Amino acid sequence: MLEILNACKTFNAGTVNEKVALNGLELKLNDGDFVTVIGGNGAGKSTMLNAICGVWPLDMGKILIDGQDVTRLPEYKRAAFLGRVFQDPMTGTAATMGIDENLAMAARRGASRGLAWGITKKESEAYYRLVKSLDLGLEDRMSSKVGLLSGGQRQAITLLMATLKKPKLLLLDEHTAALDPKTAAKVLALSDKIVHENNLTTLMITHNMKDAIKYGNRLIMMYEGRIIYDVRGAEKSALHVSDLLARFEQVSDGSFANDRMLLS
Length: 264
Description:
The chain is of the alpha/beta class. It has a domain at 1-81 and 167-176 and 201-264: P-loop containing nucleotide triphosphate hydrolases (Rossmann fold, 3-Layer(aba) Sandwich), CATH 3.40.50.300. Helix content is 35%, strand content 23%. The strands form two sheets. A six-stranded mixed sheet has the order 6-7-8-3-9-10, sandwiched between helices. The protein has a four-stranded antiparallel sheet with strand order 2-1-4-5, with helices on one face. The protein starts with a strand and ends with a helix.
């Protein structure tokens, strides 16, 4: 479903601020893979997601989604293939519009617009059932402005919006990092439920190593713009945080000195 072939990206090339963000990155995801991504600050995790989305053009390499080469496609054309939930709960929704209006926008992404009714009765009923499945009590607040919701509620709505049209690839970019632990656990459980119910191919960046082990069928660790560890299945399930720390030190010849990850 996703192939990244020899992806290279350098920022501020030829200057004192030169930073190699992706260094010959190679990654292949099968249909239905749920891959968690960990790595220290500057490892290239977010750059990889932005490259997939078309935010940053690659200096070299290719990106294929479901067999189609999207390397040269602009960001707006790749949106038809992708769903994304960002770290900031304020991103990804229209704060001054209602829950139902946000879902209607997501349902019409990539489609032509006209002057028909914004939301039909049939759509309203479908959105009601969808929001009710979250079990957050939001189904009785469908016309409430999304900006009035809590961070966790907004991320739950953003998840629905990102997966409403069953994207070929779902990107979760540290989408629980700004939430308190209890709310983060709820949003993660909801993410896992939606991914499995819809068999979505998913990349999830996280700074929490326990979550990286718990969720998904595969785990990759990035360092200096490349993948240094790739584990899946039963071997992944048997991992402990100490194993990941040891693996990082073994491959990188250094300690995993990242406070955010160690505290998580």
